[in-house]
Design a protein that fits this description.
alpha/beta, 6-stranded parallel sheet, 19 helices
Length: 430
């Protein structure tokens, strides 16, 4: 039993490799395969891809993906202890406890920052109407705080341990800023209100039980896969490493460059604690500027995984050198995968009279961006009969701003009732 990390620059290659793994039956022929995914969209895509790899159809698959159970747990530890559906520390449930604690202690000195923010205390000269307006955001503030506390539990478990034991530290051993002390006191009050072990205590117990081999009562098959994650909290990596001692755990990670991933393997000493973000020097290992500027999260994940003891790494290399006549997009993708920075001679040789594989459109506002997007997509679909809407991915920095503009610009306002594009997009990324 081991934790195996599979990585490739193409999610299609990873999906095909996962299909090959699932095609090998486990000991129990009636047991479902378990695949953990970060989003429902990845589940739909992966199920379609696996349906053409599994089974006995003429193409190697019969179009059906059966016997595979996809999960998107709120917390891996809640999944392992079978509390995913009633986890009291899940933010959507914890919000009501946080709200009750705020309402109960809003007049206490430690809660003064929240009292001012929620209008319970007004500065001299401020109208009473402003206090009423601020009090209307109580639930939104409580939900935000519940999400922060849940993020602390998974990303910085040491922080909550220090707060629970009365140490005002920031999780890295430094004193907590004075204007954030109220968060530590809020956490202690929330702990008193929740009739359940704290997340850090529950996590330590689960890791200890997994390492001791107490996994027979878990509703888990002998083989577990996690597919498509681009980041993993520190607490979940500890759980996976512990579970890998008694189960076959496969982590399928898409990476931008396998060359950079290999360099990180040699850079990270096994068993050493990963450095804090401010001390990272992995950018010196990267040559391509896009990877250096946009790949910090991936490098941090690579360092943490490489430092785990007993981890097996499988790299799926699938790309070939592009032809000299390849499009600019293919050349750019090849450079990123190989972490290769083209020199002046290469850039001069890649000059194209007409190449629309990479386009930059300068627009004077969000509404104009949507208009140009519509014209570009209509043109692409008209020029290429093989292109289908499911092949198109549109990414935007602010869903709330762009969704109504897309609704109007694409002429879908009359075709959709209350289920607007904004709601559809939010449901897809929830």
């Amino acid at each position: 039993m081991t934790l195996t990390v599979h990585r490739a620059t193409s999610t299609g290659v990873l999906a095909d490799a996962l299909g090959d793994l699932l095609a090998r039956p486990v000991d129990d022929p009636f047991a479902d395969e378990l695949v953990v995914v970060p989003e429902r969209g990845i589940e739909r895509w992966l199920a379609q891809r696996l349906s053409h790899r599994l089974g006995a159809g003429p193409r190697g698959g019969d179009g059906v993906c059966a016997g595979v159970r996809f999960l998107k747990p709120h917390s891996l530890v809640a999944l392992l202890i079978d509390r995913d559906r009633d986890d009291p520390w899940e933010p959507s449930r914890l919000v009501w406890t946080v709200l009750a604690v705020i309402d109960t202690h809003l007049d206490e000195p430690w809660c003064a920052p929240l009292a001012r923010h929620l209008g319970a205390v007004l500065a001299p000269g401020e109208p009473a109407e402003l206090g009423e307006l601020r009090r209307s955001r109580r639930w939104a503030v409580a939900r935000r705080l519940a999400g922060l506390l849940g993020s602390y539990a998974s990303q910085r478990p040491r922080l909550l341990v220090d707060w629970r034991e009365g140490r005002p530290l920031d999780g890295a051993g430094e004193p907590l800023p004075d204007d954030l002390h109220w968060q530590a006191e809020l956490w202690r009050r929330v702990l008193d209100a929740v009739d359940a072990p704290p997340p850090d205590v529950r996590h330590e117990r689960t890791v200890a039980a997994l390492r001791a081999g107490e996994v027979e009562e878990l509703d888990l098959p002998g083989r577990l896969s996690l597919f498509g994650h681009t980041r993993l909290p520190a607490a979940e990596m500890e759980l996976l490493a512990a579970l890998g001692e008694h189960r076959d755990v496969h982590l399928w990670l898409p990476v931008a460059s396998t060359a950079v991933a290999r360099a990180l393997d040699a850079h990270a000493p096994v068993g050493a604690a990963a450095p804090v973000r401010a001390d990272h020097d992995t950018d010196v290992l990267v040559h391509h500027p896009l990877l250096a500027a946009l790949g910090r999260d991936a490098r941090e994940l690579g360092l943490r995984l490489a430092a785990l003891p007993g981890v097996a790494v499988v790299t799926h290399d699938e790309h070939d050198e592009p032809e000299p006549s390849a499009s600019l997009l293919h050349l750019l993708q090849s450079d990123v995968r190989a972490d290769r920075l083209p020199d002046e001679h290469d850039r001069a040789a890649r000059t194209r009279a007409v190449d629309t594989s990479v386009q930059v459109h300068a627009c004077h506002g969000p509404a104009r961006q949507v208009e140009v997007l519509r014209e570009v997509l209509v043109g692409l679909l008209a020029d290429d009969p093989t292109l289908e809407p499911r092949d198109v991915l549109v990414m935007c920095p602010d869903v709330e701003t762009y969704a109504p503009l897309i609704e109007a610009g694409f002429g879908l306002a009359g075709a959709l009732d209350e289920g607007s594009i904004a709601r559809i997009v939010k449901r897809a990324i929830a």
